[in-house]
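Kindly review this record before class:
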Amino acid sequence: MKHVSSHLGIVVPHIEMKHVIASTIYLKGFGGILFIFSSSFGAYLLLLYLALITPVMYDFYNYEVEKPEFAQLFSKFAQNLALFGALLFFLGIKNSILRRQPKKKASKSKTN
């Protein structure tokens, strides 16, 4: 909190870590279950999770290139970046398929 406040120049309100952890578990778990069932909403939840967690958890930019932590963190960062791109690809394909489907015409019933 102090680090964020010093860089942004504003006071950040106090946030309980258990709420942060619970929300990340929710985003990953619920988003993953919905994504398994081909839900766009699930993909958006996973995108949000990756966008928030990746730069915080895998901060390779704070280490020297020669240190062993750099390679591990950079590898995980690149993996999450690839997953982010795959989710964007999924959403793009899903939206393009929905646009290509012809709209159903109301069928006229024949009456004698």
